[in-house]
Design a protein that fits this description.
With 164 residues, the chain is mainly alpha-helical. It has 7 helices and 2 strands, in the order H-H-H-H-H-E-E-H-H. 18% of the residues are buried. The model is unreliable at 1-21 (pLDDT under 50). This is Polysaccharide biosynthesis domain-containing protein.
Length: 164
């Protein structure tokens, strides 16, 4: 898979500095969109490799994991984090509830950065099993999956496949 879109390593490195600039400066620049996609893909790949390598129940994602998880379960006590759909995450009601949740974490660095989330936590990242969410949504859902034991099967299922 050519995630760099032909930009090359030098272009990606110089592009990384650009990504810290205000979005208003860029308009609809496709090379910037490509760099955002590459960054999101790289994050997903690193995270999945972590899930395949360690017991997810003990994985710490940020220094604020306890707070993020607590607020998430207060705001979404019944959300089934094991199996999600775009409809559950992005219908008009869900958008409002998520917006309110995200606002509570405006102080968190990169809280709104676009991040890939697996819809079914028992499967790996793929076009069919991924959706784009704000970083704080990703963290909240993945923290719940880790703490509630739903990501435990990933290590057993995919570690063997990745070792070969």
């Amino acid at each position: 898979m050519n995630v760099g879109g032909g930009v090359g390593a030098g272009g990606l490195m110089s592009g990384a500095a650009l990504l810290s600039r205000p979005a208003e400066e860029f308009g609809n620049d496709s090379s910037i969109e490509t760099m955002w996609a590459v960054k999101a893909y790289n994050h997903a790949e690193i995270y999945f490799n972590l899930l395949c390598s360690v017991d997810a129940k003990f994985l710490r994602l940020t220094p604020h994991d306890d707070l993020i998880y607590k607020v998430f379960r207060e705001d979404f006590p019944d959300l089934n984090v094991q199996h999600l759909t775009d409809e559950v995450l992005k219908n008009s009601y869900a958008k409002q509830v998520w917006r309110n949740f995200c606002e509570k974490f405006k102080w968190f660095e990169d809280f709104s950065f676009g991040t890939l989330l697996r819809l079914d936590c028992e499967d790996e990242y793929s076009e069919e099993n991924s959706t784009l969410v704000a970083r704080i949504q990703f963290l909240a859902i993945e923290l719940a999956r880790n703490r509630e034991g739903f990501n435990s099967g990933v290590r057993n299922r995919f570690k063997v496949m990745r070792d070969h």
